[in-house]
Amino acid sequence: MKRFLDKFLLGILWLLSIALVTTLWMNTNYGFDMLSAAHWEYLATLQAHRSEIKPDFYISLIGALFIALIGLYLIVRPRTRHIKMEQSSAPQTNIIIQPAQPIVQTTPKIETQKTEKKQEPVFTPRPAPAISLTSRPMSPTGLRPPTTAPAATIPTPPLQQTPKFTPPKPTVQNTNSPEIQSALEKSEYIIKKCDRIGKLQNPIIAVAYDQSVWIVATKTAPDNMVNAIQTLVTIFDDTLGDTANDIKLRGFIINPTEPNKRSDDLIIIFDNTADFVKYVSEHKNIKPDDYDAELFDAFSTYISTVTGYIGKA
To answer: I want to staple 22 with a disulfide (CB 3.0 to 4.6 A). Which of 49, 64, 74, 277 is the partner?
Structure first.
């Protein structure tokens, strides 16, 4: 609302300035007073009688009108903020899980050795018994049956077990200790609950009286913090328009996994929790001179809505 009021007053000031300059120009060069109703009535009479009027007179009026409209547009046009994203030089490793392939069991070929010489059945003759004329001929029951080789036993190949895939255990990132939240609360910062922002898991969101938003995370890369800040900037610009320029965003990383390659102060790095607690105690949340309780309550409620929406998205 404050931003809108500033632009409204600035636009009125611009139009009054253009009107004053145009009046001075027309009065000096053409003797025409734009604030006089009698002069406008005299101009209408000349136009009705088709009297000759200098083209420069109309060009001056049209030029002043265009300058006023262009300046007014530049004042009220929306502006969006963009944060420069820097690509990390560290290569990203993608884990590709391949499906288990079916196991095809192959039956081994068994080669039978050929004997150099085929064995033939051996008959052992016995002495022929006496044959009687009245007896029937005896059948050769005394013949020994042929010797046969034992059947070859095919070994059964061992069954191959399908390898079991064990999924990797999920790693919990950004586990903020209660000491961090306690330090922020002691310095009178307002904590907002948020489960996730971009690539950050369970970050701590702290709101200050000067419409500043702090994002605190541990054991993460600076690129993940930049991604979270850019996500909030996009939502603020889409929902608030130019009013989003009044919100200040700052990222804090404790024990980062990668060094910070940014040269600006968008992200502040701490080696341990004790250093962050010391920094918070030195930068307490103090109410500014133009503090508006109703405006801050609306701002705090808006941040709660945004963090709740991002965490469930």
So the answer is: 64
**270/183 Cα distance (integer angstroms):** 15
Rounded Cα distance, 158 and 230, in Å: 58
Q: Which of these, 128, 129, 79, 121, lies nearest to 242 by C-alpha position?
A: 79
Query: Do 34 and 22 meet the contact criterion of CB atoms below 8 Å apart?
Result: yes
Alpha-carbon distance of 180 to 217, in angstroms, equals 10
pLDDT tens per residue across all 313 residues of the chain: 677 788 888 889 989 998 899 888 888 888 888 888 888 888 888 888 888 888 888 898 899 899 989 988 888 877 655 554 444 444 444 445 555 555 555 444 444 444 444 455 554 555 544 444 444 444 444 444 444 545 445 555 555 555 554 544 444 455 567 889 999 999 999 999 888 888 888 899 999 999 899 999 999 999 999 999 999 999 988 888 888 888 999 999 999 998 888 877 889 999 999 999 999 999 999 988 888 889 999 999 999 999 888 867 6
Contact 254, 217 (CB under 8 A): yes
- Neighbouring residues of 71: CB distance < 8 A, sequence distance ≥ 6: 14, 18
Query: How remote is the C-alpha of 164 from its chain's centroid?
Result: 33
Closest CA to 148 of 188, 184, 121: 121
d(CA 240, CA 236): 6
**Residues whose CB falls within 8 Å of the CB of residue 270, separated by 6 or more in sequence, listed in order:** 252, 253, 254, 255, 276, 279
Q: For the chain, give percent helix, strand, coil, nearest 5.
A: 40, 10, 50
Report yes or no on whether pTM surpasses 0.70. Answer: no
Cβ-proximal residues to 40 (8 Å cutoff; 6+ apart), any chain: 34
